[in-house]
Automatic annotation (TrEMBL):
The keyword Methyltransferase applies. SUPFAM superfamilies: NusB-like, S-adenosyl-L-methionine-dependent methyltransferases. CDD domains: AdoMet_MTases (cd02440). Residues 1-27, 37-52 have a biased composition (Basic and acidic residues). The keyword Plastid does not apply. Residues 209-492 form the SAM-dependent MTase RsmB/NOP-type domain. Keywords: Methyltransferase, RNA-binding, S-adenosyl-L-methionine, Transferase. It comes from Amycolatopsis magusensis. One of its GO terms (biological process) is methylation. The active site is at C431 (nucleophile). S-adenosyl-L-methionine binds at C313, A314, G315, P316, G317, G318, K319, E338, D362, D378. This is 16S rRNA (Cytosine967-C5)-methyltransferase. One of its GO terms (molecular function) is methyltransferase activity.
Length: 495
């Protein structure tokens, strides 16, 4: 369950521990890799700690500006020219501390003599970074504590050093397992609460997984544990341009088990945006579950004409790329609707050269001519199915978000059923297993529109463990994909 450091990272950490053991200080704030100037005469420049500095700066941006760690960190690594082991360590610490925030906060709280809410934000970022190193990596205690004290001192002042040191020493008194034994509720009385804390998930998220799985036992634990692990990167080979086998050979990955276009990269393969086929737009980064849902849209048989396709929520364009490439091969065209102009631009970039027309519009009233043969509604959702790829989002999302989203999802699905021709197909996808966003929305709207619900499992050939149907719910612990949901509806001929 723990995201242990790679073997390569350990040497790096060992070096840092040695430096810390020699009492060497880190710079107060390394600027693009340069040590901070000192005013008190010539001294040996202090060693740098660009990885932990980067991690702390990203944690701060996430907390203060609602930034996304997986957007801020790559930019920051590039800007500061942090590479190799330092980049790997910064990534591990940033994503790990973000993902585990609830668990770290519970342990930190147990070591405080005041409520967590009374700890200064910058100091709290540092405590989380330090506690993560102590509980979920093999970084030596001395290095984890000293480096964190130094970083926080540089940002928040010398007066914080004693406090940070004392709290982290208290955290280090026990390992993660011992802390969990002390803090987690009893697994017999409160299994959801127990698994939630052990796998660093908010309780409401763990409960929504339990409801979707119909399980509060070992399968729930496996699902939450898989969701707490560092995800593999998946690539999609652009249909008609390169095969999955060729892409795997070039990138050193493996052809994906289920998607005919997918490749899974081994952990630690570096930034996938740097891979040559991605730079040349022969391939893109896309979770295999998302690929499978896009391919499923085109696999459903339709009677008669099959040349006008619609992607009703297209930004940033992952599935539009797949639909556009498959449309080009079959002689169809795609209209791609996206409400946010900047995301519509991303769709334009992603589908350049393909028979895709992008429209900036509200999918509930896009003012397009009705009569599409196939419509995809990849609706805005809570994203509870891709929490492993968006480290901080599990702590940012609130249960109240779901109510607003289900209203929008229902309106978009109803709109799709109007835009599709009688006998045409609507595929509804969300990256969430939350029952309100999945079966709740589809059941209600299909009933109102008198739409036929097809068995979506037929359009995921070769994918095991898809349950009783008619819907498909993918899971990280079963399929190694994000937890994508897919329903397939046919508009009745007479409606
Ligand atoms: C889950 S994402 C779609 C992902 C996309 N299909 C892909 O594979 O890359 C949902 C998208 O719907 C857009 N959206 C939200 N409300 C919308 C609306 N009323 N009409 C059209 N698009 C909307 C969001 O901006 C977001 O880009």
């Amino acid at each position: 369950m723990n995201s242990q450091p790679h073997r390569g990272e350990r040497g790096d950490r060992g070096d840092r521990a040695d430096r810390a053991d020699r009492g060497e200080r880190r710079p107060s704030r390394p600027q693009r890799g340069r040590p901070a100037p000192r005013k008190d005469g010539p001294r040996r420049p202090p060693p740098e700690d660009p990885a932990r500095r980067a991690a702390l700066d990203v944690l701060r941006a996430v907390r203060e500006r609602d930034a996304y760690a997986n957007l801020v960190l790559p930019d920051l690594l590039r800007e500061r020219r942090i590479k190799g082991r330092d980049a790997a360590l910064a990534t591990e610490l940033t994503y790990g501390a973000s993902r585990a925030q609830g668990l770290l906060d519970a342990v930190i709280t147990a070591c405080l003599d005041r409520p967590l809410s009374r700890v200064d934000g910058v100091v709290l970022d540092g405590l989380r970074l330090g506690a993560y190193q102590l509980l979920r990596t093999r970084i030596p205690e001395h290095a984890a504590v000293t480096s964190t004290v130094d970083l926080v001192r540089a940002d928040a002042g010398s007066h914080t050093a004693g406090f940070v040191n004392a709290v982290l020493r208290a955290v280090s008194a026990k390992d993660e397992a011992a802390w969990l034994d002390e803090l987690a509720p009893s697994p017999d009385e409160d299994p959801i609460g127990n698994f939630a804390l052990r796998t660093a998930h908010p309780r409401w998220v763990a409960r929504s997984f339990a409801e979707a799985l119909g399980d509060k036992g070992p399968e729930l634990e496996a699902a939450l544990a898989a969701d707490d692990a560092r995800p593999e990167v998946h690539l999609v080979a652009r249909p008609g341009e390169i095969s999955a086998d060729e892409l795997a050979a070039i990138t050193g990955g493996d052809p994906a088990p289920y998607s005919p276009y997918g490749v899974r990269l081994p952990a630690g393969s570096g930034d996938p945006a740097d891979a040559e086929p991605v730079r040349e737009k022969l391939a893109a980064v896309q979770d295999e579950g998302s690929q499978l849902c896009a391919v499923a849209v085109t696999r459903v048989p339709v009677d008669g004409r099959d040349e006008r396709w619609l992607d009703l929520c297209a930004g940033p364009g992952g599935k539009a790329l797949m639909l556009g490439a498959l449309a080009a091969l079959s002689g169809a065209t795609v209209d791609a609707v996206e409400k946010a102009p900047h995301r519509a631009n991303l769709v334009r970039k992603s589908t350049e050269g393909l028979p895709v027309t992008v429209h900036v519009a509200d999918g509930r009233e896009p003012e397009l001519e009705e009569g599409y043969d196939r419509v995809l509604v990849d609706a805005p959702c809570s994203g509870l199915g891709s929490l492993r790829r968006r480290p901080e989002s599990r702590w940012r999302r609130q249960p109240s978000d779901v109510a607003d989203l289900t209203k929008l999802q229902a309106e978009l699905l109803a709109s799709a059923l109007k835009l599709v021709r009688p006998g045409g197909i609507v595929t509804y996808v969300v990256c969430s297993p939350h029952l309100a966003e999945t079966e709740g929305v589809v059941g209600e709207i299909a009933r109102r529109a008198k739409a036929e619900t097809l068995d979506a499992r037929e359009f995921f050939p070769g994918v095991p463990q898809l349950g009783d149907g008619p819907y498909v719910q993918l899971w990280p612990h079963r399929h190694g994909t994000d937890a994508m949901f897919c329903a397939v509806l046919r508009r009745p001929e007479t409606a």
